[in-house]
Amino acid sequence: xxxxxxxxxxxxxxxxxxxxxxxxxxxxxxxxxxxxxxxxxxxxxxxxxxxxxxxxxxxxxxxxxxxxxxxxxxxxxxxxxxxxxxxxxxxxxxxxxxxxxxxxxxxxxxxxxxxxxxxxxxxxxxxxxxxxxxxxxxxxxxxxxxxxxxxxxxxxxxxxxxxxxxxxxxxxxxxxxxxxxxxxxxxxxxxxxxxxxxxxxxxxxxxxxxxxxxxxxxxxxxxxxxxxxxxxxxxxxxxxxxxxxxxxxxxxxxxxxxxxxxxxxxxxxxxx
Length: 272
Description:
Strand content: under 5%
Structural class: mainly alpha
Helix content: over 70%
Radius of gyration: 20 Å
């Protein structure tokens, strides 16, 4: 009963946010266009590299476009749906100005309130650009589609969404103690999305190990892409590795929620 009630409240909060932002449609359209254009510049830069290099790490443009489209779509969704947990906004609004004190006083689940406090519709531009690149890649990379691949593709996107959402939550929770945003979180979120747009085997060994055993991003995008594209694994990992994306993504999200609950219980107001 509590789950269904929280879901209804969350949808109502989102509905209010969407109606509010749609009041200024022209401004919203401009923001969405700017977001799509900014994201498009990134892919255009990537495509220009192939004017000089035929392949990067043995991968063609369409194969890397598949990686790029997956991570851009997932991160764009995260940036839109988890805007309330964006550490850059959460720290000044909720911690420094005491907004979180008001959240705790309301008879509504704290997590639902923060999730429903903002939805960045302007990110639809970035999502659309990611979907467009992914569509180009899936139609041009010669993927041999099977029912399992068709089912697994949205699962991989959802897993990355959960993973990045978890990082947003961890970043916001950490501001309960730091008061200011923790810049290293942006390295893992925005920087991580940029890094995951390229084949992992092109990076130095220490970086591959870090993003395998410390922050296991390699399992979220790179290994599923090997499976979809029927490419051999240059790192010689177990054959089950491409299917670890849901375990890593939703596992990280679960850890983030546990850390969030821990932080909420130990939250101490700044007095503002």
